[in-house]
Amino acid sequence: MRVNYQKSFYKAAKAVYEISNGLDNLSFPLDILEIISQDRRIKLMTFNEFSNKTHTPHFEISSIFGSEDAFHIRKGNKALIIYNNSLPMNRLRFTLAHEYGHFVMGHTGINLNEHFTYEDFYRRKAEEYEANSFASCLLFPLHIRYKYFNCLNTYKTSEIFQISVQASEIALKVIKTHMDSGLDDYMTSNENLHPKNYLLFLKESLDSHIDYTNEFNYIYDLPI
Ligand SMILES: [Zn+2]
């Protein structure tokens, strides 16, 4: 068993497309806190607020919940995203988008039982990859990567979209690989259709045997 990265990337891109379609006048850098706040299913809370409310000592939060950056607690179709607001800004932005992605894509997260199977291992690996891809595609949308393909470099991207240099580098590598795989053919029509056309490209690429994301899958040194 292994993770189908191409399929996972498509799933994340599709989830971003569906979320973004319902939002008007998106501008960049994306106000991720605002975007998540608009989703009535989510309640955001900082580590401090969570600590005060639950009487959990602040220093114990990361060991109890398994992350120094953020985590979410789901209840039915609602969730609480608890985040460490002392993180560097770019990391915090990506972290929030990542947790939001877990929620939007209905991930099951860690099952805290002792029987952690190989299936769980691969599912979790796929979920982390999907959440990272979701964050990347939300903060630096695919059709915008295409539009500015010729004038963006890693540092400019990091500055404009307020994502880390590492995340920018991966995003630009992904679009480069897509361009090499014939993305242009899908994008040459009406600019308004670009988000949709990009998705179509990804969907149709699933049937081909180019595992274009494989080489990027371990590069993310980002939160879980
Ligand atoms: Zn995660």
Number of strands: 3
For the record, give the distance between the C-alpha atoms at the N and C termini, rounded to a whole number: 21 Å
Strand order of the largest sheet: 1-3-2
What radius of gyration results from the CA coordinates?
18 Å
Structural class: mainly alpha
- The pLDDT mean sits at 88
Give the bound compounds. Answer: zinc ion
Structure characterization notes:
- This protein has 224 residues and is mainly alpha-helical.
- Helix content is 56%, strand content 8%.
- It has eleven helices and three strands.
- The chain has a three-stranded mixed beta sheet.
- α1 packs across α6, α1 runs antiparallel to α11 and α8 crosses α9.
- The longest helix is centred in the middle third of the chain and has 22 residues.
- It is globular, with a radius of gyration of 18 Å.
- The two termini are 21 Å apart.
- The chain binds zinc ion.
- Zinc ion binds next to α5 and α6.
